[in-house]
Specification:
mainly alpha
């Protein structure tokens, strides 16, 4: 799922192994990301330049820009965004949509943190601390929203461009982003997937009774 911040989805076990050319591209992207994360931890986000990233990753600056249009994109993207729609399509056809989306989003959240907890914390911390990263995140939300609109339309028979579908899709993306911000703002205390589960409860059932 594009720009899922802490949440990432691993490719299915039966997914065909990518060819040599694609594996080289993935290796290059991963090297650029690793260099960026290391530099940001060492000297901060603002002080980290594309030239420094390129040198650390042993590629040219033009190569960095070819894979990532902006420095913010290096932080926000991951390799398995396209798998999100596949995972939703693989859920049982008779399963309620809310159960399907909850299952996939929570699985992605758990995997994202378990794969590399430090990177998950860094990404969400940058969302809070760096306005440029947060701004780019907001820009990218429409891409993820369109992806969800397609998934919702396939499962419900609705028009992917319909108002209700668009509002529902963006509410899910907004809930994910706010959960990521909340987790980082509170020192990454608690389990991210559990927080996301709470957020999905709010989207599904509302706030409930007011506290006295």
């Amino acid at each position: 799922m594009s720009y899922m911040t802490a949440a990432r989805i691993s490719p299915p076990a039966d997914r065909p192994r990518p060819g040599l050319r694609e594996r080289k591209k993935i290796k290059t992207r991963e090297a650029i990301r690793a260099a960026t994360y290391a530099l940001v931890e060492e000297q901060g986000y603002d002080a980290t330049t594309i030239d420094q990233i390129a040198e650390r990753a042993e590629v040219s600056p033009s190569t960095v820009f070819r894979y990532f249009p902006t420095k913010e994109d290096i932080v926000l993207t991951d390799e398995y965004d396209p798998v999100f729609l596949e995972e939703l399509r693989a859920r049982p056809k008779d399963e309620a949509w809310t159960d399907s989306i909850r299952h996939v989003m929570l699985a992605a959240a758990r995997i994202g943190v378990e794969d590399d907890a430090e990177v998950a914390r860094l990404r969400t911390r940058l969302l809070v601390d760096v306005p440029a990263v947060r701004s780019r995140m907001m820009e990218s939300m429409s891409v993820t929203g369109r992806l969800l609109c397609v998934a919702i339309a396939e499962r419900t028979g609705r028009d992917p461009d319909g108002l209700e579908v668009r509002v529902h899709a963006m509410s899910l993306i907004g809930g994910l982003m706010e959960t990521s911000l909340y987790w980082a703002e509170n020192g990454h205390q608690g389990d991210f997937a559990a927080l996301l589960d709470r957020a999905l409860d709010v989207l599904e059932h509302g706030l409930g009774r007011e506290k006295s």
